[in-house]
Amino acid sequence: MSALKNMIDRQKKDSFVPEYQDKATDEEALGLIVSNYFQWDGLAILKTLSSALEDANFHSENEKIQAMIDKLEGEVN
Fold first, then answer.
1. Which of 17, 34, 42, 43 is the most exposed place for a label (fewest CB within 10 A)?
2. In sequence order, which residues have a C-beta less than 8 Å from that of residue 43 and are 6 or more positions away?
3. Contact 42, 20 (CB under 8 A)
4. Band of the pLDDT at 1, cuts 50, 70, 90?
């Protein structure tokens, strides 16, 4: 089992009530890990999503995410 899968499984046990742990998705748990890692910084989370979409060749979808990033960066700067 990969280190990431171990982290996801641990997150499910640590973050969800026992009745939901077996139903919690890897995406939910990984979302918690990413959010926590970036200290709930939405811009950093979006940039991570953008990189993942590009890697998976979801280029048109990533264009929408990149537009959101550009808008947020304009608001921050």
1. 17
2. 69, 72, 73, 76
3. no
4. low
